[in-house]
Amino acid sequence: MDLAIKGRKAIVCAASKGLGRACAFALAREGVDLVINARTAGPLEATAEEIRRETGVDVVSVACDITTEEGRNAVLKACPAPDILVNNAGGPPPGDFRDWEEEAWNKALNANMLTPIFLIKAVVDGMMERKFGRIINITSAAVKAPIAVLGLSNGARTGLTGFVAGLARETVASNVTINGLLPGPFDTDRLKVTFQGAADKTGQTIEQVREQRRLGNPAQRFGDPEEFGATCAFLCSDKAGFLNGQNILLDGGAFPGTL
Ligand code: NAP
Q1: Residue 24 has what pLDDT?
Q2: pLDDT value for 94
Q3: Ligand 1 neighbour 160 (Cβ under 6 A)
Q4: Can you tell me the distance from the alpha carbon of 81 to that of 166, in angstroms, rounded to the nearest whole number?
Q5: What is the DSSP string of 16-69?
Q6: β strands within the chain, DSSP E
Q7: Which of 33, 42, 97, 100 has a beta carbon 3.0–4.6 Å from 58's, enabling a disulfide?
């Protein structure tokens, strides 16, 4: 299928590794020029170079913290009028809500709710004027099925999801869609951190935790980031203009509901 987005411009946040990187690659394979971001310059530029070499698209790498105003401004300066925005950032740490003071909540809300909202605010009107826009928020399966130890993530990401649910109904008439992509367990560095947390808590080895989680998924495996990237590219495609305000769960069927 030709996704018909060749020559479009995308900002992909938090994209040197993992799911953001997979989204950047998938878009580049469709001929989309990119501005990609992460905090650490070395791995970010390495990813940018790999994408350029494989796909031939233009890739600008902007090393900064996307959860800061300066970081967002630097990314927007490199791409002031994107056709596609993929919002992403690191996830908040696990823990017990009794230990979280205002600072911990502010940090999570800033990274996983307000940062995507500020980026959307900066680009959405231009997208509507140009009559094309695709906005993807990478959130978490925890939006649909909360994970108790990830309370900061459950709260912040569900806040973002609620906000964009309203906005998406106002933008779609101008061919600007806003959708959430909800990862279940994907084989990335983030998953290793989560497993280490569970291992520390239960006294199991990280391998035991990993095997237990793998067998607990109906697919008997973890997601491949490439599968995530491919779904992102489709949602960003010209063909997906009627797919709006949705939250697409990629979890191998782990969520036990019929709908
Ligand atoms: P990952 O493999 O650890 O990659 C995270 C990427 O984000 C890296 O490129 C990292 O680079 C960048 N990053 C982190 N904080 C940033 C910041 N403040 N500003 C700019 N870039 C930043 O993680 P992932 O698995 O792709 O996860 C992506 C998101 O999906 C996270 O929010 C995670 O919580 C969520 N999620 C993942 C899973 C899963 O199974 N993988 C499941 C549910 C939810 P630098 O460190 O250099 O900045």
Answers
A1: 99
A2: 87
A3: no
A4: 23
A5: SSHHHHHHHHHHHHTT-EEEEEES-HHHHHHHHHHHHHHH---EEEEES-TTSH
A6: 9-12, 33-38, 59-63, 84-87, 133-138, 176-183, 247-250
A7: 33
CATH of the domain at 130: 3.40.50.720
Name the strands in the sheet holding 247-250, side by side, starting at the edge strand that comes first in the sequence: 59-63, 33-38, 9-12, 84-87, 133-138, 176-183, 247-250
Q: Which residue has the tokens 């130890």?
A: 149
Tell me the CA–centroid distance for residue 162 and ligand 1, in Å: 21
Q: Which of 11, 19, 186 to mutate to test the pocket of ligand 1 (most atoms within 8 A of CB)?
A: 19
Residues of the chain with pLDDT under 70: none
Query: Domain range for residue 21?
Result: 9-186+223-249
Which atom of ligand 1 is least distant from the CA of 39? 48
Number of structural domains found in the chain:
1
